[in-house]
Design a protein that fits this description.
With 147 residues, the protein is of the alpha/beta class. The chain has one domain: Response regulator (Rossmann fold), CATH 3.40.50.2300. 43% of the residues lie in helices and 17% in strands. Strands 2-1-3-4-5 form a 5-stranded parallel beta sheet, with helices on both faces. Strand 1, helix 2 and strand 2 form a beta-alpha-beta unit.
């Protein structure tokens, strides 16, 4: 915890176009024991601009963790993942695919593109909150992330 206090809150980028899922994720992370700052974008193009600190996102921090939906406007989630993992400056950021898809092709495609984790969003509210808390516990409180 001392290292966490020294470095400040964990920066999370949520790439999600569903406002309801954004709200639920924000609420679940608000209850987190680890201090975090949640940033959101609602399409794949904005996601890459945020990650590359371009345009209106020039002053935004580098995320410690990306939560990525696959079903996005403008640029599909798998293409965003491909771009992240091919960019030498971004490829070390852990990417958790958080999507409604349970397609074997999406799961295999995500791991082929070096996703760090694939999680299907439950439709039940309580289970969704549990999933977000589990992600938070592992990626923000347990795993050691690159600085």
């Amino acid at each position: 915890m001392i290292a966490e206090l020294a470095r400040g809150p964990m920066e999370i980028l949520l790439i999600e176009d569903n406002p309801g899922d954004v709200r639920l994720t924000r609420e679940a992370l608000k209850e987190a024991r680890v201090s975090n700052q949640l940033h959101t974008v609602d399409d794949g193009v904005k996601a890459l601009e945020f990650l590359r600190q371009q345009g209106i996102y020039a002053a935004m921090p580098r995320p410690d963790l990306v939560l990525l939906d696959l079903n996005l406007p403008k640029m599909a989630g798998l293409e965003v993942l491909r771009e992240i993992k091919q960019d030498r400056r971004l490829k070390t950021i852990p990417v958790v695919v958080l999507t409604t898809s349970q397609s074997r092709d999406d799961i295999a495609g995500s791991y082929d593109l070096h996703a760090n984790c694939y999680v299907s969003k439950p439709v039940d509210l309580e289970r969704f909150l549990h999933v977000i808390r589990s992600i938070e516990t592992f990626w923000l409180a347990t795993a050691k992330l690159p600085s």
